Amino acid sequence: MTTQFRGVIPPVVTPLTASGEVDKASFVRSINRMIDAGVDGLFTLGSSGEVAFSTDARRREIIETVMNAVDGRVPVLVGCIDTETNRVIEHAKAAEELGASAIVATCPFYALGGMEEVERHFRLIHDAVPDLPLFAYDIPVCVHTKLPGDLLVRLGKDGVLAGVKDSSNDDVAFRFLADDNAKAGHPLTLLTGQEVVVDGAYMAGADGSVPGLANVEADGYVRMWNAAETGDWDAVRKEQDRLSALMRIVTVPQDVAGFGAGVGAFKTAMALLGVIDTNQMPDPVLPLKDENVKRIAAVLRECGMELARTPDEVSASTEF
User: Fold this and answer.
1) Which residues are annotated binding-site positions?
2) Overall pTM > 0.85
3) Binding site members for pyruvate
4) Which of 11, 173, 260, 317 could form a disulfide with 278 if both were Cys (CB 3.0 to 4.6 A apart)?
């Protein structure tokens, strides 16, 4: 069931209009661009997809837009991320209704519990939606709990989890997880959420990657995956070196942190490249402007990417 979830599966950025509505035309343009590049799937309503900023109605609109644009060409994983189990199950049932290929959930957050509650959380989600593969989303920077490898492998062996999307930025823990998963017979599909050390994750045994930077440049990640599949590690390293340089777009904004710097940089780069119409962000996050847009444009040029719009045009594209 999980063999379809290998390769490059970008976490789709959700484009917004200047007034903060879902920009469906830009959304379709971005999705087609990644599929044309050869990605193996798409992950909507992850962190890059603004799941934490979206009402239930907005989540449904995003899923419907993605499913209509994809039209069965690649599998679509849907983030069902919320503070507690019953809310996650509601999102999962909506995703199933709308045709999701798999669902992705973090552990509970806000009212933090122990590992017994975390395990129960994933088991209850699987029991409620048994026909959809369930991926655990390990992102401790947002949910303040690191998912332990022994728990993940146990849930994989029990058929609760189909895989893990690892955004822990803990390369040692990921390597141990890959080793333990292999020893257990590979019950889990392991996807790294990294952009900069994807090459190391592939060497450790990752089954694919979920790089947010692929919204900006998917071709390189597809080439890197194809090279890894054939064991051409020199080509893997060269692609990773180039993509690592491009990832500097998230480090150059000044006086901005977190989501506004990371996804804000992705959106700004996509707007500069003409992929989406604005770099608008969800409230209360402000879009990048002026000098920060110019800094991102400079990185794109240094990496050989041709701009379709000027920094001033992008800065003027939003209402805030």
Assistant:
1) 210
2) yes
3) 210
4) 317
